[in-house]
Amino acid sequence: MAGSIFWLAARPSPSVLSIAFPAPALIGDARFRRALYVAINRQELVDSLLEGVGAVADTPIPPDDRLMQDATAGAVRYPYDPRRATQQLEEMGLARGPDGMFRDLAGRAFRVELRQSGADDLEQKTILAVGEAWNRIGVPSDTVFVPPARQRDREYRATYPGFEAGTVGNTVSARDVSAFRASELRTPEKNYQGNNRTGYVNAELEQLVDRYVVSIPLPERKQVLTQVINHLTDQVVGLYLMFIVKYPTAISSRLVNVDANSDIPVSWNAHEWDVK
To answer: CA–CA separation, 27 vs 201, rounded Å?
Structure first.
């Protein structure tokens, strides 16, 4: 499935956050992230925003990746269930206030930020829909569209206090997996540069990453990736939403040498096309 994956990167580490509301502390709890995840009707997002040309994403591995599809066997999946979302919040000890919205464990009001950068219309519509889904279960959200003047502000971009929307390529390379290392954290000492967008660090996950990047035989590589996918989805480090097909193209069966699986315009090698 050529294209990319739309996801929400979570900030589960409260230690690097600064916000007036206590939402970051809740976001640090995987139970809270799981509740928010099952409150999102991802199939509806695909049907309405992608007009059905796409698929729900449970992992970063697309459904037509035959080479690595086995690695999704250990993924924890979160089917749409708003009642379950409410139940999970209540099981955490959260209760609704007079306005019908949940309060934190100390009884204080909170808000969850959904941040999006750039002028991508699909991303903007998606986070508005996600925010509305969370509001319906009693979790108030704030949608923040990063102004152009702040899009190059590394500190601002690295310390988002909730969830940040984005798209990534639908591959699971060694570089993608290595992004979850502590050495990739966007810290002040590194001028907020690094590939770890979420700020999530876990010793067990780092050990798996180290094994994955040095595993050459494919069976061993897939076995380690299975464990990586299990960890990422169990802890809901990111909320994978949908696979986006960027270049759906009708191709005549008479044409040969047409690369229909590329993540770039299908005409990139038009000079090699021929007719049967």
So the answer is: 14
The CATH number of the domain holding residue 34 is 3.10.105.10
> What is the domain range of residue 51?
4-171+234-245
Whole-angstrom CA distances from 222 to 22, 29, 212, 227 are 39, 29, 9, 9
pTM of the model: 0.83
Question: How many alpha carbons lie under 13 Å from residue 242 in its C-beta half-sphere?
Answer: 24
Domain count, the chain: 1
Q: Is residue 274 part of a domain?
A: no
In a domain, residue 250? The reply is no
Residue 190 lies in a domain: no
pLDDT in tens, the chain (276 residues): 444 556 666 654 332 222 223 356 888 899 999 999 999 999 999 999 988 888 888 988 887 777 788 889 989 999 999 999 999 999 999 999 999 999 999 999 999 999 998 888 888 999 999 999 999 999 999 999 999 999 899 999 888 888 988 776 656 667 788 888 989 988 899 999 998 888 888 999 999 999 998 988 989 999 999 999 999 999 998 898 988 876 556 677 787 877 655 444 566 677 788 888
